[in-house]
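Homework help thread (please don't just give me the answer)

Our assignment gives two proteins as sequence + structure token strings and asks us to describe the second one. The first is just a warm-up. Here they are:
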Amino acid sequence: MKKIGILGSTGSIGTQTLQVINLFKQDFEIIYLTANNNVELLIKQSLQYKPKYVCIVNESKVKQLTEKLSNLNCKIISGRAGLLEIASCNEIDICVNALVGSSGMEPTVNSLKAGIDVALSNKESMVMAGEYINKLKYKNNCSIYPVDSEHSAIWQCLRGEDFQEIRKLILTGSGGPFLKRDLKSFEDITISEALNHPNWTMGKKITIDSATMMNKGLEVIEAKWLFEISPEKIDIIVHPQSIIHSMVEFIDGSIKAQLGTPNMKIPIQYALTYPKHFKSDWEELNLAKIGSLTFEKPNTKKFKCIELAYYAMNAGNSFSVVLNVANDNTVDAFLNQKIKFNDIAKLNELAMEKHPVSAVNDLETIEELTIWTENFIKERV
């Protein structure tokens, strides 16, 4: 039985992880659950799964959590410090990092420092600190299991293959809700329109990232570090049906692809059950019913964030950190009606242009860049 800890158990990936575990109760034990703010759902989950540790980051909710779990034999931890402490817990086999945004990076680091394998949904960890995290992974003999559908697809396609024979990794993306929308009308895009993804059901932040296609840009940077491959070998192709989740092309011209329904529980399950595929009851893929699969090049004039991500990846140093943090804050500003949709890319680019470029060799530098970028965006929204 594998012992599991879930960082961000009340979010989209966290709740779907628990749905997977429900299907294989005999194979997994929940050791800890954490939430940022949703104490009501955290209480419900804790009563159902009876974890040893429960963490709520919002300290104003501690009293409510303590009262409701008074009959449960668990230790309650709170605050950002509590989250970082629980991420270091070495009583588990796998930490599922389902946290959203830049705040998920340091917990990934703490889990790896503790020698724990990480099922990683938080792409920002690799975007901001990929080189540092890889060093920790090797130093502590840990593994990182990709949870993003695209990286899970590549991971599966590369099993048993010689990395020297890779010609390119091909990340697929649906193009989001605005694939066919005229760029001239982007400033009129509403929050509800941007949150209406045609294929996937996700949290608000990643859904907006899909609408700007920043999600795909960040995935390119993540792929560079996850698979330790040079940037020129990573491509993006738009695939509106979201059936092919990514592909690998080899030097002999052959291409391997991983297909499946657009269901995040499938890559979550594989990250938990690796190296085995467990029989599940998720909807099966019916290609005859789908009929056809289509592809097109991404329009980087319309989706500027893709271009920004490639620039950051190639420039190295502090550019990826600043882009990631800027995007966290501009998406939040858009969701709070402080800026227009097309301002997200504009402000992300401006932060990259104006930031103090520096080498990123430690967490202290990342923290300094994070503070600078947050202040820079805050002054402009």
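The one we have to describe:
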Amino acid sequence: MPTIHLPIGGSTAARTLGCPAWLGRAAKTPKGGSSSAADQGTLFHEVMEGYYRDDKEFKDQLGVTTYGEYTFNTDMLNELVLPAFEAAEQVFDTYDIQELMIEPFVQYIPDVAGGSIDILGVSGDGKTVVILDWKGGHGHVRAEDNKQLIFYALSAAVDNTLGAFDIKKVEKIVGVIIQPKISHKPDVWEFTKAEVNAFEDELIKAIDSSELESPPASSGSHCTWCPAAPYCPEKKLLARSALVLSKDNSEQLAEAMAMVDEVEAWAKAVRKAAHSALDRGGKVAGWKLVAKRASRVWADAEAVETKIRNAKKIKLTEGFEVKLKSPAKIEKLCKEKGIPFQPFADMAVMYSSGNTMAAEKDKRPAIDVKEIPDILVKMVAES
């Protein structure tokens, strides 16, 4: 089913609230191409849509449903689709969802704001509405206070063409994120009509602000997928301010660390935009496209394998590598073969390759490292 993209949609609702200026800037920005991760995510959506809307069994879609260069296979079935299906059915049972609408297109403001909801469900008594969104990536998306979910709820309630439910009758709105690569359990957020109304007030203010001659702009987590990010003045200012902070002052270092993720994301977006421009035949002063560093590969691996097997002076163990699979892969293999994993699980240990930094709010315990006295640091530096 072709996707209709309006200027303001579910995935851009948070960005519109955080930076009304993005709308005008994005309109002047070259369109970027898709990515392999995005194509795989779309394929995941296509398979789920095929099951719920078109009654296509998952097994019948194997090797048939495709998107871009990707084809639905058993790995996606086991790792994404089946866990997603089980999580969704759990939600439908919990809230007594009797009516499902698959990919309904809803508009808050015709031709300006709206989008397609993955699944909109209504309970048997009409008092509960479920807004469900599939996520196929690794970047953790939380349901609580998710602007995409509440935007869809608002749009569905306002769009008279849908006739999905009577908003006056609704007592509970349930936003659901199902993201199998993060968890096989549904992430659920129950919110009220009052919260939807408050969100609507914010959205109207942001849309009105976007039409000003100089709309307000700000940098933040909402910038992640913004097409205008590589050209954003606020991002450039943020990067410059991070560079001038003293690296010898712990307070300023902490301030700089708070900017790191955002600056790194911006730098990645800049590289992607520059590469995309060169791919299209454009010019980026000081840069050019070159072939990646090449490495030798076998032109005919089977022929080489035969030659090694026939070589008298090369042992098979010298010509071939056999590597034990990881505990995660052996666990997956056990599931496929229908044998218990527990005997293997008892032989696995948790191993960390070292330390990494994390924000204070991270649930992992801090590692107790004794601070090195300044005098020792100075001695090492001078040695």
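TA reply:
I won't write it for you, but here's a hint about the kind of observation we're looking for: DSSP finds 14 helices and nine strands in the chain.
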